[in-house]
Amino acid sequence: MECCLAQGELIRLEGGKEGLVLRCLSGTVWLTKGDGMDYLVPAGKRIMLAKGESALVEALQPADLLLGDPSLSSHIVRPAIGLVAC
Known about the structure:
Elements: E1 2-5, E2 10-14, E3 20-26, E4 28-33, E5 37-42, E6 46-49, E7 54-59, E8 63-68, E9 81-82
Antiparallel strand pairs: 1-8, 2-7, 3-6, 3-8, 4-5, 4-7, 5-9
């Protein structure tokens, strides 16, 4: 499924029963997972949500996304920021 986000627009994603891969086709998005990690996903990169995992996605600039099957996951982006409890 394709999804287009305007700059600053937010969406919530759910991994569901199988998991979900978000592929950024253009632009850059900021993704926050329930694992306490934040990820920058630029054009050409992908990130996977595991089964049952949720995330909040914000477009840092207009972005086109492709949401699909976890079998599409060949490259996972690294966390941009990790938060640790004090």
